[in-house]
Amino acid sequence: MLGTTTKHAMLGDSQAVATIPVTDAARAKAFYEGKLGLELNETRPGVATYKSGGTVLYVYETDKAGTNKATAATWPVADVDAVVAELKSRGVAFERYDNLPNTEMHGDIHVSGAMKIAWFKDPDGNILSIVSGD
Prior knowledge:
2,3-Dihydroxybiphenyl 1,2-Dioxygenase, domain 1; 134 residues; single chain; five-stranded mixed β-sheet
């Protein structure tokens, strides 16, 4: 029909899901639930989804786990210092990247202007982070 436009679903209308590969579902469960405090949403053999704010973190078993050398998932948080302290109390170790331009280290937190960010790894070496934000 002339003059009629059809709206197609676009990716920008949907929430993206962080997808994390792991080698051992039980070990990942202990980390993502026990250390990070995420709530299990759904599980099936080799796959788990966790509630994280208004979105989902998808964790699945594969022999390719830990091969990504970049950040796999980031959580914006209101108080990076408080979240780092809580995660440290749960046994999470933080990474240190000393070669980042215009960035200072304040304990385990990288500070660049008003931005604060802290990186850590899951048991498979996937790099995760928390960053200042709303």
